[in-house]
Amino acid sequence: MPEKCKGAGLRIAIYRCPECFETVEIFSDEKKASCTHCGSAIMVATANKCMEWCSLAGSCMAKTVKKQVKQRKQKSK
Question: Does residue 56 lie in a domain region?
Fold first, then answer.
């Protein structure tokens, strides 16, 4: 039997590193991660999500939500 993808159903969120201020992608199941730029620890509960600092986050998230709603409607048919 083929192995099931361990990343299925996970989302990637974009956070800002509190030390170097670079963007870091963190999977939705992670509670903490290391910055890929400077190595600092990022605690997801206290990290700055892109919605808090990105001027394009509203339009970007609207597209994402619209896509998710469309996918759920297709699954329920």
Answer: yes
Considering the domain boundaries, does residue 25 fall inside one? yes
Question: Quick check: 5 pLDDT over 80?
Answer: no
pLDDT band at 71 (very low <50, low <70, confident <90, very high): confident
Tell me the residue range of the domain where 28 lies: 12-76
pLDDT in tens, 29-68: 888 889 989 999 988 875 556 667 677 777 776 777 677 7
Measured between alpha carbons, how far is 55 from 64 in angstroms, rounded to an integer?
16
The answer to whether residues 42 and 35 touch, using CB atoms and an 8 Å cutoff, is yes
Residue with tokens 């609207």: 62
Residue type, 36: T
How many domains is the chain built from?
1
